[in-house]
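Re-run requested by the PI after the first attempt was lost when the workstation crashed. Everything re-entered from the original request form. Ligand of interest: uridine-diphosphate-N-acetylglucosamine.
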Amino acid sequence: MDYFVIRGGKPLQGRVAISGAKNAALPILAASLLTSETLRVSNVPHLNDVTTMIELLGALGVEAAVDESGVLCISAEHLNSRRAPYELVKTMRASILVMGPLLARFGRAEVSFPGGCAIGSRPVDLHLKGFEAMGAQIDVRDGYIVATTEDGLRGCDFTFETVTVGGTENLLMAAALADGETILRNVAREPEITDLVKFLRSMGAVISGDDSDTLTIQGVSTLHSCQYTVMPDRIEAGTYLVAAAATRGCITVDGADAEHLGLVLDKLREAGVDVQVEGTCIKADMRGKRPRAVNITTAPYPGFPTDMQAQFTALNLFADGVARITETIFENRLIHAQEMSRMGANIAIDGHSVIIQGQEEVRGAPVMASDLRASASLVIAGLAAQGETRVDRIYHIDRGYERIEEKLQSVGADIVRKMR
Ligand code: UD1
């Protein structure tokens, strides 16, 4: 199993190119099931989760190939299965996203109960309630969710009890091919949803309600081929900007979209970072300054993203003052706090919050990654700490950060990947 060895305490300086967004690419790839025509998708990041999604689609019969210009060409013309197998689904929760498209186009989907990051119980009940509202029948057989419809999905008026990103995406894709109008209320508004809406539109879907909490979809009978470029990864960009702040360095991320990072940039500024935006470049300059403590409460977009919570916890370890970080989206997403206390951090868990008394200096230590964003936070902590940090179980980080150690090395980090 791979691990990182980090020798910390060096301010990071330089430029980092931002990859395509994992959380936009995954639903877009799943949406390829909606048409028999070939789709051409650019800026798909090279990540283990993307590979898993392509393998999963391959298990259904989808053909995918990268052309000479790096564009992913994907065709769901000849499907031979409607079953998303346990072996693949258990490694990635986003596998559930094939359910809506399969059900809408073929009237049947079988998906093993999803796995993914261990960040609390993450049910898919709202996805299933939505499919039922569209006329699907849902059964559970041998650990598989089996969704069927005899005469196709029909439009409905559905309100999500809780804001769910994956649930919104799944129902949106299903509704694109359903009979009649679907109104989805209390939908997630994350930029990745907007990216999926744009992608579906370029396939011929009829969707309105952008930037609101209600999406209206007029179902069409078929969707067609398109070319699309996946949006930049706002969480990857945010992670490098926090790494600059924690190490008292200066990093410019290239190819990012500052509009997607509103509260994240506000919180960096509150921490004392000089943040400058110029086109698609965002510069975070913290040279010679110690960060100030910042409180964070996660919330659905446009609130503060849960996927940036752990990284800001790491930043606060080194800050002047006391910070409270409150996680409201997931039940069990504070495991990194325990690992950080191994580094001598003054950090305590209080229900759904962590309270951090920042210290001028934190010492490196062996730590273990528990999920994707927790691993990024431990890497940031290691980069800013004095001495050596070893981060184990980095397979989590490889799910969502493209070539992270190369990108960090290019801005001066002393980080190496080793194999046990
Ligand atoms: C997506 C992102 C993940 C991010 C999360 C929240 C992808 C591939 N992953 O995950 O990085 O952290 O959004 O921004 O895009 N819930 C239910 N019932 C459901 C569905 C969700 O109770 O049927 C609950 C979940 O347990 C959680 C909350 O709703 O407490 C939000 O989850 P959701 O938005 O669905 O997260 P994901 O789509 O899994």
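Saved to the shared folder this time. The longest strand covers residues 2-7.
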